[in-house]
Amino acid sequence: MGKAHVLAICVPAQGHVIPLMEFSVSLAKHGIKITFVNSESAHKLLVNASPAAIKDDDDDDIALVSIPDGDQPEILKQVIENINATDGSDKITCVLADPGLSWALEVALEMKIRRAILSPFAATLLVLKSSIPKLIQVGIIGEDGTPTKKKTIQLSPTIPAIETSHFSWICYCNSELLKFWLFEYALRCNKSMKLADKILCNSNYDLEPAAFETNPKILPIGPLLTSNRTGNFWADDSSCLKWLDLQATKSVIYVAFGSATTFDQAQFQEFAMALESCNRPFIWVVRPDFVEKLSEAYPEGFEQRVGGRGLVISWAPQQKVLEHSSVACFVTHCGWNSTMESLISGVPLLCWPFNSEQVHNHNYICNVWKVGLGFNRDEGGLLARQVIQNKLEELLGNEKYRANALDIKEKLRNSIKQGGCSYSNFISVVEWLKE
């Protein structure tokens, strides 16, 4: 009998690729063969950013494969058939998919292959998505996912209340097309949960106990961390780590808004001036597409005035930055990967959510875990520099946020150690895959 062989397939988005790739690397270290399938567009970005990012020198058990963008069940079936025909006894034994790719699980079911999903977002959101049929039945949302009225609901007696206007498929979505796609994604997640033999989540029991109690089939295996963050679409600028070495302990403001967030020029300038006014060292991750006409976007004289105090880079080795002793706080869009990386590093957060799940994460960060502060986005419009500066100073001036973050850090670290809940769940998955 050959090795267990997992075909992992992902939505072609940075926040989805990273956790699935990190989980794949962890499985490979336990002797499981991985074929990682990406869309052609994501595959090109991944390979160009870091050709050797997913391989250790002594590990050749992860193969990257690309298929055309979009839903491609017939092509995926052909990929599996080709592997099974040419790979000797190492046939595909499990399809591991992003929950939004229910069609991939349907292919696996048809081919009598075991099926698992890995959620790249919070377990509470899996519970929310699985509640959609009931929410429609009782009239809280329509057939298209739109709330019938603004109200507060509870998914279970112990899960924190949620505003219907903050459902992940509509929150802060100005585009009808995006709303449609996000709701379709939620419906596909529901289908995947029914098709999957295992429902895994990059979360932790200590973060969301009520969600795991509500649906015990969801197994927390996070935080998923490898020695190097894998799955990046942009090359890391590791020079920032040497710059951090020169800064005082807990002095640096780290700013990164993920792979998709954009600012208009007015907001970009207000934020730049807020960083300048704080008079603290900072690292600001500014992707080339973060704002239009980037070379002209900075306030006049900004770069000269902040001098060596401010470092602007296009992409950061985020996990290593957050673990650095010089980092004081993290200004974030509240993506789930960023949230988990900050929590396991004990770094307090300043939350600036933009859409979808980010508002849910913001609520947990500020109101449940109490490890950060956030802005009131419901009012819309421009966030003024003074508002941003005041929030930063409030966050950095109150040690309770860091104390709470360090408390969660200890719990998360213990959970992924041998004997911890997430570690034990991970090992149970490894053993299941090898059966």
From TrEMBL:
InterPro entries for the chain: UDP_glucos_trans, UDP_glycos_trans_CS
Cited Pfam families: UDPGT (PF00201)
UniProt KW Transferase keyword: yes
Enzyme Commission number(s): 2.4.1.-
Highest taxon of source: Eukaryota
MF annotations from Gene Ontology: quercetin 3-O-glucosyltransferase activity; quercetin 7-O-glucosyltransferase activity
Sorted UniProt keywords: Glycosyltransferase, Transferase
Family: Belongs to the UDP-glycosyltransferase family.
Protein's UniProt name: Glycosyltransferase
Organism: Dipteronia dyeriana
